[in-house]
Amino acid sequence: MSLIVQKFGGTSVGSLERIGQVADKVARFRAEGHDVVVVVSAMSGETNRLIGLAHELQERPVPRELDVLISTGEQVTTALLSMALNERGVKAKSYNGSQVRILTDDSHTKARIREIDNEKLHAGLEAGYVLVVAGFQGVDEHGNITTLGRGGSDTTAVALAAALKADECQIYTDVDGVYTTDPRMVDGARRLDRITFEEMLEMASMGSKVLQIRAVEFAGKYQVPLRVLHSFQEGPGTLITLEDVNQMETPTIAGIAFNRDEAKLTVLGVPDMPGIAHKILGPIGEANIEVDVILQNTGEDNHTDFTFTVSRTDLPRAEEVLRRVAAQIEAREVRSDPRIAKVSVVGVGMRSHAGVASQMFAALAEVGINIQMITTSEIKISVIIEEKFLELAVRALHSSFGLEKEPNDESVA
Amino acid sequence: MSLIVQKFGGTSVGSLERIGQVADKVARFRAEGHDVVVVVSAMSGETNRLIGLAHELQERPVPRELDVLISTGEQVTTALLSMALNERGVKAKSYNGSQVRILTDDSHTKARIREIDNEKLHAGLEAGYVLVVAGFQGVDEHGNITTLGRGGSDTTAVALAAALKADECQIYTDVDGVYTTDPRMVDGARRLDRITFEEMLEMASMGSKVLQIRAVEFAGKYQVPLRVLHSFQEGPGTLITLEDVNQMETPTIAGIAFNRDEAKLTVLGVPDMPGIAHKILGPIGEANIEVDVILQNTGEDNHTDFTFTVSRTDLPRAEEVLRRVAAQIEAREVRSDPRIAKVSVVGVGMRSHAGVASQMFAALAEVGINIQMITTSEIKISVIIEEKFLELAVRALHSSFGLEKEPNDESVA
User: Fold this and answer.
1) CATH number of the domain that B379 lies in?
2) Rounded CA separation A276/A267 (Å)
3) Backbone angles phi, psi at B223, to 5 degrees
């Protein structure tokens, strides 16, 4: 018998029928003898409905009251799911953030969890109850209701799993696991049985938005085994773990991530002097524009070229800021290109395996794709290419690294 | 400067527009320098919507979870009203039952208030906030959410006023006060400036359903001055007070109450022996039928007639029970009459003024109304008459006791 924390998002509890299906699933786990803590979000649409009401009253609703308002969404779901479980003969009890108690800081609408009191939860589990906990919410030290921000229910689930030392934290979603790459793009894309936290973070930040990055970080920090599963289909999903040193067959590469939501900005003929990067990126940061890849080429004649990428929607604003900066620093020219994409090869295995980069570049060259920028991290190599080559690049890399094969097959890398 | 507790029901906060109007009203009191605690119900329809969801999942929803579910309704209103107040430049903060904390017993869906912690409320008032408190809800000693049952928001308001020693508890409704009788029946019906708790209880139980009886009892017990006012019309309303001994001009009679929802049952030829009343009414009580007026005439030949009234909807069931009982006790006959009405004269003044009863009977005789039954209490005299004479009776009594005149005028009684 093990202790499992299960999290169901807004779509999974979006109607009474779906709440019934979730209850069926939880009841099956209970019947297998597991202790179960369920974390739920508000029924889909409810949070937005409540926020809509608030905005009709105030352009910028008082954050404290906004939290009081929207936290009711999850509370409603906890009560309904508890009823559905009791109706199925499964003893169940709801808990809101204040009842658990999930202590947070006082940053309303984006609070951080400080501490979870697990005394009540342990008592509830020992008394044989399934505990249904409201995700996304907590209380500050003065008893004010706080919320954790969008996607906070994942964080609640992971934090509860950590506090209760659960055997597994299961996040139910609308996909059946984490894939080697987007299955809509590559036919041979394969569901991974396992992936490490670091790989998951790199995959997630590239647009494989299965899990909130914050929850993955949290799970990694507290070593909570995390599993991504489909809410209404059976299957083992993908287990996100610490690097499993016992698994000799760990493939070098976990997957191919990509992001087509980027745009490139280049400042040409920048005087090459200390502090120039700050002079360029400072005003961009002040305008609340996030920068992803940054590249500075060595220049000639004491001049250099400075290139970086931003989210495509930020391009017009970034360009405006940059032209002003360019004039100030007497740069020669500003160029922008919205038609780029980023493709990344991700895998903890590349730490110990040489040749991943050269294999990646070779595979792209073979299909005639020109690489515009390269950045690397310890477990990831990313390239910026022309957007029109994206699908071609992802398929070529997926095939080159043999990702369509099970890891027990001999790896190409 | 005084401390006022104001309660707004579901209709008064039934839309964002109405919440705005309530905020305007509260803001005006605040501008006059008063400290204000506002108690709100769920927006009209919301509680029923939530109960509907619960009943789709369970025929008899788990009471604990039903409370978790429906308590969100009031919480939503507290947040929205707080926002509307802040938008008007009035510092305001919401509190749910657990935050206040309103400690109740653990009778879910019909909990009783045990204690109110007023430390947080005092601190909030001292910091210059309008406090917006969720009505109808509390927590038990284990932190479980409880609700007080329908109309519980009135009770919350009175309990808060008692705990805070408020100068006045104002209940905002859809009527502008308590009247000498139903204004739809008597043109001269007059709004009372004052009424005592006891009179209000007698008037309320007769169908003048302005306030929850429980809240009035509570206010009487803790000596909280209670005022009934109209939510969206200006006016002084009616103040419900302890008997004001200083007011020499207290009129004898406060008002004429009536109830047309009664039916009469008579058992004729009952053997007159000890325990016979119990033999007749015992089975009626077991069938969960409430009895109002009871009358036993002295009989002849060791036989008596036994008459009582029940709610008209209970008549068929009561008759069925009674025919069975009549056979057992060998009574001669059972008769029923659904076409009756009860008319009552209510007033604390009748304690010290003789002649109220005789004036009442004279007034009815003058217009040719036959009295079928009479019952009296310390501050009330009720008669049962044929239903078709109800309007005539109420008008005759209203006029006979001079209720259309202000109490400062010379009283007829």
Assistant:
1) 3.30.2130.10
2) 11
3) 55, 45
User: In a mutagenesis test of the A interface, which of B49, B64, B72 is the best target, namely the one with the most A β-carbons within 10 Å?
Assistant: B72
**A86 with B78: Cβ contact below 8 A:** no
Handedness of CA A370, A375, A381, A384 (dihedral sign): negative
% of chain A residues with pLDDT over 90: 62
Q: Give start and end residues of each alpha helix (H) in B196-236.
A: 197-205, 213-221
Whether B66 and A79 lie within 8 Å, measured CB to CB:
yes
- Contact at CB, B69 and A84, closer than 8 angstroms: no
Residue A209 lies in a domain: no
Confirm whether A148 is domain-assigned.
Answer: yes
Q: What is the DSSP secondary structure assignment for residue B296, as one 8-state letter?
A: E
Q: Which residues of B touch A (CB under 8 A)?
A: 16, 19-20, 50, 53-54, 56-58, 61-62, 64-66, 68-69, 71-72, 75-76, 78-80, 82-84, 86-87, 93-94, 96, 98-99, 120, 143-144
Largest CA distance in chain B: 80
Q: Give residue B248's pLDDT.
A: 47
The reply to whether B44 and B136 lie within a common domain is yes
Instruction: Give the domain-ending residue among B241, B273, B294.
Output: B241
Domain count, chain A: 2
Instruction: Round to whole Å and give the CA distance between A65 and A45.
Output: 19
Which CA distances in Å does A27 have to A13, A33, A134, A356, A388?
Answer: 15, 10, 18, 46, 48
In this complex, do B53 and A84 lie within 8 Å of one another by their Cβ atoms?
A: no
Comparing B108-112, B296-300, B357-361, B379-383, the range with the smallest average pLDDT is B296-300
- Cα of B136 vs its chain's centroid, Å: 16
**Beta-strand pair B238-241/B194-196:** parallel
Q: Which of A65-69, A115-119, B326-330 has the highest mean pLDDT?
A: A65-69
Examine residue A234 and state whether it is found in any structural domain, yes or no: no
Do B215 and B167 fall into the same domain? yes
CB contact under 8 A, A66 and B56: no
Last-in-domain residue among A139, A173, A207 = A173
CATH of the domain at A54: 3.40.1160.10
- Which residues span the domain enclosing B157? 3-241
Helices marked H in A172-241: 197-204, 213-221
B287: in domain: yes
